[in-house]
């Protein structure tokens, strides 16, 4: 038996004993280099095969490989044990004390405009209206022509309307959704159309170039101005009944002119000791009914429109609508 055959079992025994005493990853790494590194005795044993007799080389090579395989396997197993033990110790050190009070959780909240829109949709849904939506980039026909807004109307000029192309605009009101809905449905139609609208406005505390609007429409046989007044009065009473300073909600209707309604009116609410203008309304103009294929001799309807920001300003007692879009948490956390 050669000296190498005698030494290999000793190297394996020494490695196993030293490995069993290792307690940390640092100790493990030091021992691994000493036992399996480039200069380790076990590694050098493979290089000494050239000095052995040719007849002994196959047997010695197999023995070296077997010893290395067992030693390397033991090192891998010990490495896994150490990693698990260190992870368990770390988790134990960081474990939560379940007897401590839970930390405060900061909950988000709905934006005041979202709250107002949700209230509007809820009230009108209870009155039998459904919600419809339409494109914000609209062609001139749906935004103006179908609504009986003639080519000379000031709203069609570039100083008031944002044009994308010669016959395409950013919608100035959601009335275009009413036209699209009537084209697709036969009476009765009872809808509200909330959404963003765009106008070329100088921005101040009561004006923005983009704001949110709700348009309403009801078309059926026998619809009268009385139905319009009853609907809006009921809606406004329910929307503002819980507003700061609200008592009995009073409404009024003032004669006005809109090309898409006849007769037309503006509606106001008496709030905190003064009348506040909210929006426009009226009976749907016969020409508009004809544009969508309805017979104005058979059906009539009413329409109305108002800004959601305006409603929210009154509902929450806010004097500058720019606050809705500044994303200041000091403002938003009040609602």
Structure at a glance:
With 335 residues, this protein is α+β, with helices and mostly antiparallel strands. Helices cover 41% and strands 21% of the residues.
Write up this protein.
The mean pLDDT is 88. The chain is 41% helix and 21% strand. A hairpin with a 2-residue loop joins strand 8 and strand 9 (274-284). The protein has 2 domains: 3-94; 112-332, Bira Bifunctional Protein, Domain 2 (BirA Bifunctional Protein, domain 2, 2-Layer Sandwich), CATH 3.30.930.10. Helix 1 packs parallel to helix 4, helix 2 (25-36) runs antiparallel to helix 4 and helix 5 (112-126) crosses helix 10. It is of the alpha+beta class. Strands 1-5-6-10-9-8-7 form a 7-stranded mixed beta sheet, sandwiched between helices. Strands 2-4-3 form a 3-stranded antiparallel beta sheet.
The secondary-structure class comes to alpha+beta
Number of strands: 10
**Spatial arrangement of strands, main beta sheet:** 1-5-6-10-9-8-7
Terminal Cα separation, in Å? 91 Å
What is the residue-mean pLDDT, rounded to a whole number? 88
Domain module count: 2
Remind me, CATH topology of the largest domain? Answer: BirA Bifunctional Protein, domain 2
Q: What is the CATH architecture term of the largest domain?
A: 2-Layer Sandwich
> What is the string of SSEs from the N terminus onward?
HHHHHEEHEEHEEHEEEHEHH
């Amino acid at each position: 038996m050669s000296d190498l055959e005698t030494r290999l079992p000793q190297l394996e025994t020494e490695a196993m004993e030293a490995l069993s005493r290792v307690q940390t990853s640092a100790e493990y790494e030091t021992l691994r280099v000493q036992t399996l590194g480039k200069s380790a005795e076990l590694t050098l044993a493979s290089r000494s095969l050239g000095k052995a007799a040719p007849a002994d080389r196959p047997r010695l090579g197999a023995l070296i490989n077997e010893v290395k395989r067992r030693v390397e396997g033991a090192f891998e197993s010990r490495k896994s044990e150490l990693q698990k033990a260190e992870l368990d110790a770390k988790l134990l050190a960081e474990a939560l004390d379940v007897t401590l009070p839970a930390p405060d959780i900061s909950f988000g909240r709905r934006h005041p405009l979202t709250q107002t829109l949700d209230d509007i949709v809820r009230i009108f849904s209870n009155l039998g209206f459904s919600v419809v939506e339409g494109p914000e980039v609209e062609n001139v026909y749906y935004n103006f022509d179908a609504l009986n807004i003639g080519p000379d109307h000031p709203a069609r000029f570039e100083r008031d309307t944002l044009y994308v192309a010669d016959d395409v605009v950013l919608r100035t009101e959601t009335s275009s959704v009413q036209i699209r809905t009537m084209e697709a449905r036969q009476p009765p139609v009872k809808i509200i159309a909330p959404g963003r609208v765009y106008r070329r406005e100088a921005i101040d505390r009561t004006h923005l170039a983009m704001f949110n609007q709700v348009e309403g429409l009801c078309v059926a046989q026998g619809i009268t101005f009385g139905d319009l007044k009853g609907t809006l009065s009921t809606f406004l009473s329910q929307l503002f009944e819980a507003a700061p300073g609200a008592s009995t909600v009073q409404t009024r209707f003032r004669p006005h002119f809109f090309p898409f309604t006849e007769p037309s009116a503006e509606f106001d609410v008496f709030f905190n000791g003064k009348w506040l203008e909210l929006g426009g309304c009226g009976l749907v103009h016969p020409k508009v009914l004809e544009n969508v294929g309805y017979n104005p001799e058979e059906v009539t309807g009413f329409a109305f429109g108002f800004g959601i920001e305006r409603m929210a300003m009154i509902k929450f007692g806010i004097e500058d609508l720019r606050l809705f879009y500044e994303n200041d948490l000091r403002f938003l956390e009040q609602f």
